[in-house]
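Late entry, written up from scratch paper. The run itself happened at the end of the previous shift, but nothing got recorded in the book at the time, so transcribing now.
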Amino acid sequence: MDHSSKLGKLFFVGAFSLAGTSVVAARFVSGKLGVFTIAFFSMFFALLLLLPLSWKKMRVEMKSMTMQNAFAVLLQAVFGMFLFRFFLLNGVNRTSSLEAGILTGATPAITAILAWVLLREAVGKRSVVGILATVLGVFLVQGIADAGLSLSSEHLVGNLLVLGAAASESIFNILCRNSVLKKEASGSPLDPLVQTTLVSIASLLLCAIPAAFESPVTRIAAIGLLEWSSLVWYGVFVTALAYLCWYAGIKRCGAFTAAAFSGLMPLTSMLLSTLLLREPTNLFQWLGGACVIAGMML
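Output as recorded:
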């Protein structure tokens, strides 16, 4: 294993561990602010950190950007931040943080399948078993194996929305890796700091218009220190630092490696939901979480 690959995996650990805190952070503001308002302010706080750090590099790299590069950044913003947050925040409103966290564990399986189909990355037997373990984990989290557990339609919709977030994250993973491969072929890969900043700016603009219809001024005025802290965390750590680590990792590792390490996201979410939010768990949820983590390892 070369040094670059090892470093890439370390970046993935940081990226997905930080991303896993998004479910818990969302719980503190979900229902109190509109979905797009939360997303807008998280981008705003992220850019307060990113713009001063990236401004000089961004001015240089923007001069050589093509329309194709700009479109790639827009697509990454749509799937990686806009749609991911839309599905996740709406899903957390309808289901538990713990289940939402575990269900994001569908990301490794979806990413692996897309990497195989779209990027033609080789898939081995262990990867196939890992995908199946993840799918089994998702079914167990739903409580399908527990005859005594009945899910309301609202709860089920919440879980499906979270799976939509996992799918959006997976598509984002593939778009990023495809962009890296194209940039490497041209000999000029985009700097991770610049890429994170550009995607954050695009996401901020995408969220601005729908956020205006969510009575943002009135609702923002009513929140307290805990909610503001959650928004700052969402912006600085879940958005800026996590995506910086992500782009640095995907430059050095393939999509299958990214898929494997994305299993850290549900693990972090599950542990934080249990420890911080004191959400109750049952045997099938823990078995489902174990299957998701096993899928990551495989």
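The first helix runs from residue 3 to 19.
(Scratch paper discarded after transcription.)
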